[in-house]
Amino acid sequence: MELRGLGKAAKYYLMIVNMVFVVLAAITVCCIIYGYASGNPASSMTTLLVGASVTISSCGLGFHAARREIPKLLKIYAGIMIGLLILRLIVVVILATTTSIVYAGLNQSEMDSSLDDEEREQVKTAVSAIFATIWVIVSIELILEIFLVITAFYFAAIIERTNRAEPLHAMDKYDNSKI
């Protein structure tokens, strides 16, 4: 039975935002792989990788829940997003620590005579670009997660309220003027 709860706009909104999340998580994974290769602290890179993996899998769940309009799945998805929100805040703390460690290391390398000025500048630019990208992505994901949690619970409530109402085919038997 086709549910009346969510309009097409609401469904597509939730589906598109989940797809955006997957793209952001994929970009994060690329930054993490480059971060591993550049020798950045493995603990923070691993934390980011776990966060990105959970994001991708939960977004698949959210996409399916929105497309099929399943209220229980939307609530589970919202719960996972709350967990991700907490994880993201932990990641922000770890990322801030890592950023300061890496920049301290870069400043120390300036005194290292084994690198010439051009190589040193290339390393600094590459590392700055990686961390700037990750910071932007994490910030966007934090904002999106807050909206997704609110909308997932809201959409689940709409669908449940609609499901309690009479099905569409039963409504067709009534004279609309009496309603």
TrEMBL record:
The keyword Transmembrane is annotated on this UniProt entry: yes
Transmembrane segments: 12-36, 42-64, 76-106, 126-159
Keywords of this entry: Membrane, Transmembrane, Transmembrane helix
Source domain of life: Eukaryota
Protein name: Uncharacterized protein
Organism the protein comes from: Popillia japonica (Japanese beetle)
Source organism phylogeny: Eukaryota, Metazoa, Ecdysozoa, Arthropoda, Hexapoda
